[in-house]
Amino acid sequence: MKALKERIKKDGEAIGTEVVKVDGFLNHQIDVQFMSQLGKEFRRRFADLKIDKILTVEASGIAIACMTAPWFGYPPVVFAKKTKPNTMTDEFYGAEARSFTKGTVSIIRVSKKYLHQGDRILILDDFLAHGEAATAMTQLVSQAGAEVAGIGAVIEKGFQGGGDRLRKAGFRLESLAIIEKIEKGKIRFV
């Protein structure tokens, strides 16, 4: 998506050779109008899909999932929690996910009330690096007996291999911008 690549070049910051900081519009301060354009682009790319729910993981994926939902007719947005709150008294689906950004491992959880057998799920997230969060979300969907209709990432760091692994596993993956490499403070797109 040309507008996203331009925005990353304008407002993003390369940190080392593996980190892209886009917190000014995507995951710390949110440019709501731009995020809606990203949601519209996900709808265009997944126009052939009928989906029942959008699944993401807290916290950065929630904004893009919520801004995409109107373009699909307002399906519920379900987000996996990274810690078990004391209010989660129901049974839940759980899967292990490593956070590239934080360097931590979490069990992400979704209450069994919110994912059901036969649901067609669109998984969305802000970043795709090694594919740990996306893979964990596919496991939650599988545990529920639901179907992964597609996976979308706003920014994929192609050089970290997660997207390739998901595609090889047979998932339909659409990334709005794919970064080929980060070198000497420059972000290069595929």
Automatic annotation (TrEMBL):
InterPro entries registered for this protein in UniProt: PRTase-like, PRTase_dom, Pur/Pyrimidine_PRTase, Xanthine_PRibTrfase
Claim: Transferase is one of the keywords in the record: yes
GO terms, biological process: purine ribonucleoside salvage; xanthine metabolic process; XMP salvage
The protein's Enzyme Commission number: 2.4.2.22
GO cellular component, one term: cytoplasm
Residue ranges constituting the Phosphoribosyltransferase domain according to the UniProt record: 45-158
Binding site for 5-phospho-alpha-D-ribose 1-diphosphate: 129-133
Residues bound to xanthine: 27, 157
GO molecular function, one term: xanthine phosphoribosyltransferase activity
Keyword terms of this UniProt record: Cytoplasm, Glycosyltransferase, Purine salvage, Transferase
Pathway where it operates: Purine metabolism; XMP biosynthesis via salvage pathway; XMP from xanthine: step 1/1
Domain of life: Bacteria
Entry-linked Pfam families: Pribosyltran
Function: Converts the preformed base xanthine, a product of nucleic acid breakdown, to xanthosine 5'-monophosphate (XMP), so it can be reused for RNA or DNA synthesis.
Summary of subunit composition and partner proteins: Homodimer.
Name recorded for this polypeptide: Xanthine phosphoribosyltransferase
Organism the protein comes from: Zhenpiania hominis
